[in-house]
Amino acid sequence: MTDATPLKTLKIDFVSDVVCPWCAVGLGGLETALERLDGQVKADITFQPFELNPQMAPEGENIVEHIGRKYGSTPEQSAANQAMIRERAADAWKGLKSSPSGGVGFDMQLNPDSRIWNTFDAHRLLHWAHETAPDRQKALKQALFTAHFTENRNLTDARVLTEAAEAAGLDRAEAGEVLASGRYAQAVRAAEELWRSRGISSVPAVVVEGKYLISGGQPAEAFEQALRQIAAEV
To answer: What count of Cα atoms within 13 Å lies in the side-chain half-sphere of residue 26?
Structure first.
């Protein structure tokens, strides 16, 4: 009789932005893969900062106008892409115990009136969560995804951000103090530069054990295959 395969713990850096829809899709795929690998592979996930639009003004920008200006997409192309992403997000999170929408898939409400926001303060809160309550960082990430994609709320609004922190089980008053004080600004800038210096130019970028890169909003099957292979090698 052979011993069971030992449980492997993999260190995963999930480099992403909270206004990146493919990052929400990718996290759902990763979480589904990890549930399928339960008992074989577990993950120590840290969410790392990446700003898609670091120069975005506080008032944000309409998503259709933004995508048209940045990528040359027509409103019709933007609408078709939004519909496809909504479907992918719902599928990626469907049945997950950790689903922000209670196991029925991620409710992504992208529409022509949605806006893109500056996310620097959101990344400061995520850094704070990792420093003070690392087991709550993922819950905060999901709460921020929900605030942006499901509720279409303003991610530069301190009230929205502190409510997300509270929903994630973090101290709302302390979250407000972090935002008001500018704390962790230098740390977030340094982390962003570190990942850029390592060649990360698009997200999501899932870096396993500091050297294996899984790019994009991959389906669960792709994550599962990659994690199995990595776990066998490390």
So the answer is: 24
The CB density around residue 115, as the number of other CB atoms within 10 Å, is 19
Record the pTM.
Answer: 0.94
Comparing CA positions, the residue from 232, 225, 233 lying closest to residue 36 is 225
Mean pLDDT of the chain: 93
Instruction: Give the tens place of pLDDT for each residue, 135-165.
Output: 999 999 999 999 999 999 999 999 999 999 9
Q: Could you tell me where the beta strands, DSSP code E, fall in the chain?
A: 8-16, 41-49, 61-62, 115-116, 205-208, 212-215
The residues facing 13 across adjacent strands are 46, 207
| DSSP 8-class letter at 146 | I
CATH code that applies to domain 8-228: 3.40.30.10
Query: Domain coordinates of the chain in residue numbers?
Result: 8-228
Provide CB contacts within 8 A for 185, sequence distance 6+. 120, 124
> Tell me: the pLDDT tens digits for 195-221?
999 999 999 999 999 999 999 999 999
What pLDDT shows up at residue 104? 55
Q: Which two tokens stand for residue 143?
A: 């709460």
